[in-house]
Design brief:
two-stranded antiparallel sheet; 269 residues; alpha+beta; seven-stranded antiparallel beta sheet
Amino acid sequence: MADPMWRQIAEDLRVKIESGKLGSGGKPLPSELELRDIYSASRNTIRDAVKWLVTRGLVVTRPGHGTFVVKIDPFVTKLSTDYGAGPNAEELAYLSETTARKRIPVVETPRIEIQKASDLIAAELQLDEGTSVLSRHQERFIDGTPWSLQTSFYPMEFIEKAPRLIQAENIAEGVVAYIEQALGRKQVGWRDRFTVRAPDSFESLFFSLPDDGRIAVIEIIRTGFDEDGSPFRVTVATYPADRNQFVLDVGQVPSEDLPSAGEEGAESG
């Protein structure tokens, strides 16, 4: 059974947009009237086709100006193996470098929850399955566009001596530095695990990703270890692949002028 007319038109427009035949150079797509003539279709058929493109994040309609292809300027995050920069260096770099490049970074106030640890989080923190943990969830934006999600998990026992963890506010010196000060648990290293996967329903909605799963998310799970080799925090950061790139320099590498966001995985809250 053939697809309905609006879907055939939408698919043809998608191919032309992705190939650069339409919407390049900041030009709008043909007007609704022009599209009706091009495809010999009714107004409702054209509107359904454009709506399909909008819901998949390919175009945006600006009343009075036209319909434009969504252009996202990818942000490059420099991954670092240099621990010596300090536990809060990553967050400072993220904020300072985005600002230096005349882009506007925003880190939302953390959302605090007490929840049962998933199998993954329990395993990373070496806790029994179903043990309660404290989570601090934050949303990050650049130029008003959702750029990443970050949730950090901590053992519940930390709350007694580090009560700021359960306060819905950013910790200026960084959570890792605060834990060292309050608990004497110094982070001496971390392990990162990278996964590329399809977004879940919440991520698709938050990042305005197409619902067909063609844009993946990059998930980085960072587990921090103290001087005894014991894990004490797990941070799960999620980045949509259409607006994020990652670079890792090792050894003597010439500097490259990249729009870097600083090192990955910082905890502002």
